[in-house]
Each structure stands twice: as C-alpha cells, then as structure tokens.
Amino acid sequence: MKFAKSAAGLCLLLAVAGCAGPSVAVTPDENLTVEQRAETPSASGAAAFGTQRVWASGLSVVVSAPRSLSPSETAIPPAKRTAVFTVTVYNGSKASYRPSQLSVRATTEGAPIAELVDSVQGLNGLAATVAELPPGRDTQFQLAFAVPESAVQMQLTIQPGGQGQDVATVFEGPA
After folding, report:
1. DSSP letter at 60?
2. pLDDT for the residue 163
3. How far apart are CA 41 and CA 172, in angstroms?
4. Rg of the Cα trace of the chain?
5. CB-count exposure of residue 57 (10 Å: 0-12, 13-18, 19+)
6. Is 59 helix (H, G, I), strand (E, B) or coil?
7. Could you report the per-residue pLDDT of 112-160, keeping only the tens digit for each?
8. Distance CA 54, CA 60 (A)
9. pTM for the complete prediction?
10. Which of 34, 53, 64, 66 could tie 175 with a disulfide, CB 3.0–4.6 Å?
C-alpha cells in the first residue's frame, strides 16, 4: 500500500513538472521576467520595444529596441540609415515552428517602411530564417528597415502565423 501511494505521488509530481514550461527566452541585454516586460506598454497601447508578447499557441516574440546602422552600398533598397532589430522567437507550442512564417510590417506615421537586406553586414531578412524551431527552443535573428536620417517613431506589426492568421501585436518606439 505504501508503494502504491509513493508511486502515485511520484506520478503526480512528474505530471506537474511536465506541465511547467521551460524558461522564457529573453534578449541578451535584458533580465526581465515575462510579467515585468508585459507591464511596459507604450502610450498608444502598443508593446514597447523590448517587451515580450505571447500568443495563445505558446509562441512568444521579443523585438529589441533598434540600433542605427549605415547600410553598405549593396543594400537593397538603397538607404541613408537603417534601423536594425533583434527578434527573439520562443516556441512554447507543442509543434515545430518556422520563423519565416512571421508576418512583419514596419511603419512610421502610418506609412510603410521597406525591409532592408544588406548581406555584406549579415542582414539577410526574414526570408533567410528557414530552419524549424522545435518546441521549447528559441532563436534570434535580425531585421533591418530603411528609415529616414532623422529619428522617427516606428511601429512593427507582427503576426506569428502570417498576415490574417493570428492576432497582430504592434511593437513601437523611437528608431
């Protein structure tokens, strides 16, 4: 009888431990918990750069604050300045995920901004993220956008399953 109770207790413990998800992916320069990052919305209600958003599927995304970069002469499209974002995707779902499925739209003052590809600087765009992301794993990649020379307020709208497939989250801040 004692063995049956011990075995049942062990099974319950393992089941509860199995339900606990792995640790949340964070950007390298942040040590914030999910709850802390979720509490930093911008004035417009959008997520500030650096916050994490989690979808019902368990997939989560963090978009870093941008860094400014001068594009090379081979950048497409040609631009005077580039805003570069590090995107961290954590797959908390039960199925593999391809980050290339993300729909990412960038705007400033309501006008679309073109994604910039600059392979000389390792900025190969969203289309280059072809590897599958297994459940419980995270990945990082960089996205770049052609922006005006002066600082702008920028929004990145992200949908994990592609445009129209999931609820969109807007990340925003100065770029």
Report:
1. E
2. 63
3. 9
4. 19
5. middle
6. strand
7. 999 999 999 999 988 888 889 999 999 999 999 999 999 999 999 999 8
8. 4
9. 0.73
10. 66
Cα gap 79→66, rounded to integer Å:
16
Residue type, 172: E
Between CA 168 and CA 162 the distance in angstroms is 9
Cα 115 to Cα 19, 85, 119: the distances in Å are 38, 11, 13
- Residue stretches of the chain with pLDDT short of 50: 1-43
Cα diameter, the chain? 76
Per DSSP, 74 falls in state: T
Q: Give the residues across from 104 on adjacent strands.
A: 158
- Spell out the residues 6+ positions from residue 137 whose beta carbon is closer than 8 angstroms to its own: 90, 91
Residue-wise burial string across 21-33, b where 16 or more C-beta atoms lie within 10 A, e elsewhere: eeebbbbeebebe
